[in-house]
Amino acid sequence: MPRPAAGRRLLAAAGLAVIALTASGCGGSVHKDDTFIDAGVTGLLDIEVTECFSDPEYSDYAGEDVVVYTPCVDGADNQSYMFVHAPDAAWDRDAVAQIGWDECGKGFEQQWTSQDESGLDYYPILPTAETWADGDRAIMCAVYDPEGRLEDSVLPAAVVGD
Asked: DSSP letters along 26-74, please?
């Protein structure tokens, strides 16, 4: 005997809820790359070196994705650890991305040695064609924890000489 439509919908909804809970409980690593955030995301240009900030989220108020400064001690999704300045040239996204990966990678290795030892990862945040046309040559280097949020600043303490 066929089930009533309401029963099938309830069963389908329960099944989807189980799938959602199972998927969310699995956790897993997050990988951010040079397409995750760019200089066109509202709020990003207000982030300075060493500051923590959120992942982009849609804001009904702004009508677009925004990132928000977050005090590192409150926990955050990302932390800016350096800026790289690309040379003045015609806009070439691939070339700018390569500069970002190379230079942010060098800075990451200087501060944290390796991804395996630190448990952290990094990504470059690039200008857009529009910000580039306005003179923006800054590439932000951001560090994050692929397994979750940063609990505080992850920048290594400066070594003080004698």
From this structure: T-------TTS-BTTSBTGGG--TT-EEPPPEEETTTTEEE--EE-GGG
Identify whether the C-beta of residue 93 lies closer than 8 Å to the C-beta of residue 127: no
Q: What is the pLDDT of residue 158?
A: 54
Give the number of other Cβ atoms within 10 Å of residue 126's Cβ.
24
Over residues 133-159, the pLDDT tens digits come to: 999 999 999 999 999 999 999 999 753
Distance between CA atoms of 86 and 65, rounded to whole angstroms?
Answer: 25
For 107-125, letters b (16+ CB in 10 Å) and e give: bbeebbeeeeebebbbbbb
Model confidence over 37-86: pLDDT tens digits? 999 999 999 999 999 999 999 999 999 999 999 999 999 999 999 999 99
Using H for helix, E for strand and C for coil, what is the string for 88-136?
CCCCCHHHHHHHHHHHHHHHHHHHHCCHHHHCCEEEEEECCHHHHHCCC
pTM of the model: 0.79
Output the CA–CA distances (angstroms, integers) from residue 58 to 22, 93, 136, in the order listed.
Answer: 25, 25, 24
Q: Is the distance from CB of 139 to CB of 76 less than 8 angstroms?
A: no
